[in-house]
Amino acid sequence: MRTERKPTRLDRVFARLDREPERPAHIGVPRMSRHRVVLFGATLAFYLAIVWAVLITSWLVRLDWQVMFFRPYQQWSEIHAFVDYYVVLGQRGPTAVMVAAWLGWRSWRQHTLRPLLALGVSLLLLNVTVGAAKYGMGRLGPHYATEIGSNEMWLGGDIFPSGHTANAVVTWGILAYLASTPRARRWLSALSAVTSLGVGLSTVYIGTHWLSDVLLGWVAGLLILLALPWFEPTIARAEARILALRARRRTRGGGTAAAGPLGRPVVLEPLADRAETAPEPVPAGRPAPRSPAYLAPGPHTTRAERSPVTPAGSRRPPHPERHPRGTTSVTRP
User: Fold this and answer.
1) Calpha distance 149→216 (Å, rounded)
2) What is the pLDDT at residue 92?
């Protein structure tokens, strides 16, 4: 008795990828619900609390200095090579290219621009909010600290909050935000949280950020993801305009091509004065006769009477006593 093989999870994944592209009308767009508003308010309060704790040089700043003097890169030097590679997961260029490639493929499969537009809006918010906070507070990093125990604020730095951590939260968290199923959203949320927190701790290990920088960067990225539903109407309008513009261009291009012929058609007529005769049979063993060469109308000269002519003139020097072949020359005395 033959039994069918039970499809594995990998088989189901490939079967889903092989389906025809369709627009995800069944996928619900996240809305700014009351629960999300409360979570956004609590996260914003935590953000302000971290900033205030650093400004007043509280216990958080003392913890920053203790971690810095601990020098994790010397205590666990065997993992230094791994951390150097792992911290790349928080850099803007590589992560944005990888995530944009995946979301671009999803946009093509699902016939929607929402994934790419959501990524663009999130990165724009990241540049505006985190960039303004960095240059506004001007905190120096551990390698450039000037006074032991100080918060190093307003000194022209740009590390507070941590850009690597915030970028990791937004770049990898957008995958969870755009997930099509609740289960995938939960798994991707946990994975992005662990990845971004690991990137932040990697910067602390190397010594480029304080511990409070990492905490504030993690909260700053979470604020952007929580605020994205407020921008969903803008994303929908932008998508509708882009698709409408593409449709108008296609219609305009098709109308121009079908407006009329590019030139007057040329009618080819057969030659009436040429009689079509059947070719004569050629006996075996005899080569086929060559067709006569076509000569332009007019008087023709023999080959001996012609002289090669180049753009510079004739290559044959003039000779007054030259006579064509077939004629008798006058005997010299």
Assistant:
1) 19
2) 87
Three state DSSP letters for 213-225: HHHHHHHHHHHHH
Rounded CA gap, 229 and 261, in Å? Answer: 51
The kind and range of the H/E element at 309 are strand 309-310
From first CA to last CA, the distance across the chain in angstroms is: 121
Report in angstroms the alpha-carbon separations of 295 from 277, 292, 307: 21, 9, 18
CA distance 129 to 49: 17
Q: Which of 228, 258, 245, 94 is nearest to 168 (CA)?
A: 94
List pLDDT tens digits, range 271-283.
444 444 555 555 5
* Two structure tokens written together for 63: 């913890």
Neighbours of 210 (CB within 10 A): 29
Contact 203, 164 (CB under 8 A): yes
Alpha-carbon distance of 99 to 173, in angstroms, equals: 10
- The list of the chain residues with pLDDT below 70 reads 1-4, 12-28, 254-333
